[in-house]
Specification:
Elements (H helix, E strand, L loop, with lengths): L1 E3 L8 E12 L3 E2 L8 E19 L2 E16 L14 E15 L5 E11 L3 E14 L2 E12 L3 H5 L9 E15 L2 E13 L4 E3 L5 E3 L1
Antiparallel strand pairs: 1-2, 2-4, 3-4, 4-5, 5-6, 6-7, 7-8, 8-9, 9-10, 10-11, 12-13
């Protein structure tokens, strides 16, 4: 469920508050002859405030903040089943701040941005974004570089090894070149390089225990 509203106090500024609620049961097993009973439910409450400001006809700034709270509960009849805190319930809190600026110039358009996250369990993460775009007559190009990260989920944290767990970071580079062939056709070519370092993966250890590394 989501509720948001675009408020424009003037022609240059747009303020967008947003609240979001999500509930998930990733998977569920009832009592069976062999294997574990699994019945956990997770909820996320998110609040976001985004401001978009057209400083001039050629400069746009988008900035804002976001916070969310993750909660989970173990509903299985197995009282020995716990989260990483040793309890049947757990919660985490994350706060984030972001900014992106678009400069339109006769030579090239420049996009600069970044996002900083601070999580109560795994610490902080920063991801930048840089882009160059331009349309010259019938031709255009786009060059983008960005970082992204995937935060550890609740069970990633619960089943982590003694080495701990951190956000999964990815570097993305993209180049697009295009040419308008006629009024009704255009040809584009895209090149991507996507590299993920230290991905979060699921393994079964020598004792047949589920774990994430």
């Amino acid at each position: 469920a989501e509720l948001k509203y675009n408020y424009k106090p003037n022609e240059k500024l747009t303020i967008t508050p947003r609240i979001n609620y999500k509930q998930q049961t990733p998977w569920q097993t009832e009592v069976i002859d062999s294997g574990e009973v699994y019945d956990k439910v997770a909820q996320r409450y998110t609040g976001n405030l985004t401001l978009s400001y057209n400083a001039t006809r050629k400069i746009n700034i988008v900035t804002g903040a976001e916070a969310y709270r993750d909660e989970a509960k173990d509903r299985s009849p197995d009282t020995t089943s716990h989260f990483s805190n040793g309890e049947r319930t757990i919660s985490y809190f994350n706060q984030a701040y972001f900014v992106q600026t678009l400069f339109k110039h006769r030579i090239v358009n420049v996009i600069l941005g970044g996002r900083y996250d601070q999580h109560s369990e795994y610490g902080s993460a920063f991801v930048p974004r840089v882009g160059l775009t331009k349309k010259i007559k019938r031709s255009h190009f786009k060059l983008l570089y960005s970082n992204s990260f995937r935060a550890p989920a609740i069970e990633n944290i619960t089943l982590q090894t003694d080495a701990g767990i951190k956000p999964e970071k990815t570097n993305v580079m993209e180049l697009e070149i295009g040419q308008q062939l006629s009024r009704k056709s255009i040809l584009t070519v895209n090149f991507f390089d996507i590299t993920t370092e230290n991905p979060i993966i699921y393994v079964v250890d020598s004792n047949q225990n589920d774990t994430y590394i």
